[in-house]
Design goal:
Layout lengths: L1 E7 L13 E3 L10 E4 L8 E3 L9 E5 L7 E4 L3 E2 L7 E8 L6 E8 L9 E8 L8 E6 L7 E8 L6 E10 L8 E9 L4 E10 L3 E5 L4 E3 L3 E8 L4 E7 L6 E6 L15 E3 L9 E5 L25 E6 L6 E6 L9 E6 L10 E5 L10 E4 L7 E8 L12 E8 L15 E4 L6 E10 L1 E5 L5 E5 L3 E7 L6 E9 L2 E9 L1
Parallel strand pairs: 21-23
Antiparallel strand pairs: 1-14, 2-13, 3-6, 4-5, 5-13, 6-12, 7-12, 8-11, 8-13, 9-10, 9-12, 14-15, 15-18, 16-17, 16-19, 19-20, 22-29, 23-28, 24-27, 24-29, 25-26, 25-28, 30-31, 31-34, 32-33, 32-35, 35-36
């Protein structure tokens, strides 16, 4: 079993209607009472859009540009009053899960120029605005009795889209919310997980419940087991319902695949029949191996993120093709693949080639290598294009294949049934082969995998003329009774 711990602070979402000072849903526009500052002078700043409202019909949005954003979305001025208007909240999200967005929350007690504001929080939006906004809530009681402006300031560089919706100014409750940490404990053998809740502050909380089993909000309590892939919501209830909140929504999709790390790479055996032989794989629940940085791969798509690993031995030809393809129904629709010549712990800087979308199967990957050293072990790294740091909704099964450019030049060297001897080695001009049974075929290949000699002696003894070959190393394939053995010979 392995523990994954989530620290959860009680940034509680309360019902605002009872004591709200104002709200803004940006349903039809960014009102004229709000101020927009484009301090970076770029082309794009905050504007009204309707693609992904958290509620209602619209939202505010800002899109990427090459320079760093410094764009302010500023509320109207309001007076901070204890338990009436001393809290603000809003929802923020990004487009997809690939391009996170940073922003600040700032407060001014004087005016609406950029220099008037003080930062009270710096955040990174990571959840998809299309159905998975995150609510951000802030206590501004330090400004009680003051007239203030609040600004949401986009600060990131060349990312994608940042969305903001449902801004609320209301009052802090008078009750004391409880606080706790929650830990997911997975059981890979049983494909289940449990949730351990450790209470740090009881406050006015009374119970924590998964909707089925309420338990006292005190000490350490456990919920489950739940099947992998099942979402579980834990709610904390208080003596005053104004403090009730959701502790979190929990799930565990799967345990990491066996080839999650370079050291546990799965071996691919190149096809020896000419047909593509596919091996099942998955990016589901994979983690970042830490073997490389983004600069160690020639492909874009968050190269240093989560990955899975394979090894493959270079065939006798020195040529090999490795490719991925889709699996019907899998959420994984786009892979990236790198091939390395290094070893685990020393992979960085040894990339031979990287590919994103050269496979004939849509956005999958294909690399064809030539001129490799026969017998070398290559490491193959596969990852979901644009993979976020956390396990993503687009992870899933895929298939991978490795095959020789000439299937006859396999790395498979079989035990020969009828022994033979050969000499001399190194050889000047003639290599002598002596078998116990007839030698059917002899083929000689250079280090590029090119066939340079082929004979069919069909005799027990054979002299192979190598006088016309350039000095160097050669592979000689000898076939007796339809069984082949490969030897390496040095030509002087």
């Amino acid at each position: 079993m392995k523990k994954i711990t989530f620290l959860l602070f009680a940034l509680v979402a309360f019902t605002w209607q009872s004591n709200a000072q104002f709200t803004e849903g940006f349903d039809t526009e960014i009102p004229a009472t709000w101020t927009i500052l484009n301090e970076d002078g770029g082309t794009y700043t905050w504007n009204h859009q309707t693609q992904y409202p958290q509620a209602g019909a619209g939202h505010a949005r800002i899109q990427w540009e090459g320079a760093a954003h410094n764009d302010f979305l500023i509320t109207p001025q309001f007076t901070v009053t204890a338990n009436v208007s001393d809290r603000i909240s809003f929802f923020a999200g990004i487009d997809g899960t690939f391009w996170t967005e940073t922003f600040d929350v700032r407060v001014s007690t004087t005016g609406t120029t950029a220099g008037d504001f003080t930062t009270i929080a710096s955040e990174t939006a990571t959840t998809d605005a299309d159905g998975d906004y995150t609510q951000y809530t802030y206590d501004i009681s330090a400004y009680n009795g003051m007239d203030v402006y609040v600004a949401i300031v986009a600060t990131d560089t060349d990312r994608y889209y940042l969305y903001v919706d449902e801004f609320v100014n209301d009052g802090l409750p008078t009750c004391t919310p409880g606080e706790a940490t929650a830990t997911i404990i997975e059981d890979c053998d049983a494909s289940t997980y449990t949730i351990e809740v450790v209470v740090s502050t009881v406050g006015d909380a009374t119970i924590v419940t998964d909707g089925v089993t309420p338990q006292a909000f005190v000490g350490t309590v456990s919920f489950g087991p739940y099947a992998f892939g099942v979402d579980t919501t834990l709610n904390v209830e208080h003596s005053d319902v104004a403090c009730d909140f959701t502790l979190g929504v929990y799930s565990f999709v799967a345990c990491p695949p066996a080839n999650d790390n370079c050291a546990t790479a799965e071996n691919l055996v190149p096809s020896t029949t000419g047909a593509e032989v596919w091996t099942s794989g998955t990016t589901l629940a994979n983690t970042a191996s830490g073997e490389i940085s983004d600069t160690d791969t020639g492909c874009f798509g968050f190269g240093a993120g989560r990955d899975v690993w394979y090894t493959v031995q270079v065939p006798l030809s020195g040529e090999i093709t490795i490719e991925t393809r889709s699996v019907s129904g899998s959420p994984l629709v786009d892979t990236v693949m790198s091939i390395f010549s290094g070893t685990c712990g020393a992979i960085a800087g040894t990339e031979i080639e990287c590919d994103d979308d050269d496979s004939p199967d849509g956005n999958f990957s294909l690399v064809s290598l030539t001129g490799q050293t026969p017998g070398d072990i290559l490491y193959v790294r596969v990852w979901e294009y644009g993979n976020p740091a956390a396990r993503g909704p687009e992870d899933g099964p895929f298939e991978i294949s490795a095959h020789a450019a000439d299937p006859a030049l396999s790395t498979q060297n079989f035990d020969i049934n009828s022994a033979f001897t050969y000499y001399p080695n190194p050889v000047n001009n003639t290599l002598t082969l002596k078998g116990q049974k007839d030698i059917q075929n002899v083929a000689v290949y250079n280090m590029l995998g090119q066939e340079v000699i082929r004979t069919a002696p069909n005799t027990v003894n054979s002299d192979l003329d190598m006088s016309n070959l350039q000095p160097g190393a050669y592979f000689v394939k000898v076939t007796i009774e339809n069984t082949t053995k490969t030897i390496k010979v040095i030509k002087k």
